Amino acid sequence: MNNDATDLRAVRMAAERIRPHIHRTPVLTSRLIDELAGRELFFKCENFQRGGAFKMRGAASAVFALAAAEAGRGVATHSSGNFAQALALAARARGIPAHVVMPTSAPAVKRAATIGYGATVYDCEPTLAAREERSAEVVAATGATLLHPFNHQDVIAGQGTVALELLEDVPDLDAIVAPVGGGGLMSGICVAARGMNPDLHLIAAEPHGADDAWRSLAAGRLIPQTAPDTIADGLLTSLGDLTWPILRDHLERVVRVTDDEIRTALHLVMTRMKIVIEPSAATTLAAVLTGEFQALEGTRRVGIVLSGGNLEWASGG
User: Fold this and answer.
1) More confident: 180 or 225
2) Are residues 88 and 213 in the same domain?
3) Are 146 and 264 in a shared domain?
4) Which of residues 110 and 303 earns the better pLDDT score?
5) Residues whose CB falls within 8 Å of the CB of residue 232, separated by 6 or more in sequence, listed in order
6) pLDDT tens digits for 150-191?
7) Who is most buried in 45, 141, 260, 279, counting CB within 10 A?
8) What is the 8-class DSSP label of residue 313?
């Protein structure tokens, strides 16, 4: 990944590229939740994004950055759901085929939406090795271009447009909190936010049951995810070799939360703000309500990224 792909200029270029294909999502507030948090919170609602999650930004950025000849062969990815839907939508917008490898454990609502958006879905076992092996087979058979769901320069730049919009709408934030799984969203936010306001506190939220980012930051080296166990199904993936260095260099800290804390935050948003979010999105509010975050100085005005709203109702989330 070259330096040009990781700076604010690249994020601004991605913003222009994807503008016709995404929603500029609203920033909402809640007086009651502000009182509970003891802060002013500004919720960037990517649950209202096309496909129901921020992933549409990165997918559109990568799909529309392809040269015509390359795009004409179609695109492929492996994803448990949100990027799968986003790639299907972006490919449909460009009029090209989409091939998506999905683990058999993927939520049914996300699988159905991916197929509904026009992608061809290929099943695989729910392991990273199986996903990568099946993806290689699909690419070999179709000639499609493989677009990684987070470890790709154009995807990272696209995800960074979340921070670009948030800081345009609320320029005087003290901190931004976003969830971290593979790190595409958080690394894009780091790039954009550091370019716009170097003094911002940048904090990631992560489940205790899938805490490779926390462990990696503590150790100062990339530690792979092993046996993740959390209701936040969008945060099960290991960091990538492109996302990890950005997080290592720019993240202030990772705040871990329990599944019970995620459930509490999910219920709070849905009952008080009357919007639907998924467990992965609820990690951010859960993190802000922890004692660890409450002890942080200089975080009175906090941007909170609600990453998606593709809730599997039968999951008990």
Assistant:
1) 180
2) no
3) no
4) 303
5) 179, 181, 207, 210, 259, 262, 278, 279, 280, 282, 283
6) 999 999 999 999 999 999 999 999 999 999 999 999 999 999
7) 279
8) G
- CATH number, domain with residue 103: 3.40.50.1100
Residues 6 or more apart whose Cβ sits within 8 Å of residue 221: none
Identify the burial level of 253 via C-beta atoms within 10 angstroms of its C-beta, where 0-12 means exposed, 13-18 middle and 19 or more buried. Answer: middle
Which tokens in the block code for residue 143?
Answer: 């000639």
The strand pairing partners of 308, in sequence order, are 53
Residue 295 and residue 193 in one domain: yes
Bridge-partner residues for 224, per DSSP?
none
Same domain, 69 and 100: yes
- Copy the structure tokens of residue 82: 């949100």
Last residue of a domain, one of 123, 153, 183: 153
Structurally, how many domains does the chain consist of? 2
Both 209 and 251 in one domain: the answer is yes
Output the pTM of the full model.
0.93
Question: What's the pLDDT tens digit per position in 69-109?
Answer: 999 999 999 988 789 999 999 999 999 999 999 999 887 88
Q: Give me 91's structure tokens.
A: 């490919």
Which of the residues are catalytic? Answer: 55, 80
Nearest to residue 125, comparing CAs of 139, 135, 114?
Answer: 135
At 214, list the tokens.
Answer: 């926390």
Angle, to 10 degrees, between the axis of helix 243-250 and the axis of helix 184-196? Answer: 50
Q: Last residue of a domain, which of 127, 153, 179?
A: 153
Residue of 223, 238, 101 lying closest to 181 (CA atoms) = 238
The parent domain of residue 76 ranges over: 56-153
Give the gyration radius of the chain's Cα atoms.
18
**The pLDDT of residue 106:** 83
One domain for residues 40 and 65: no
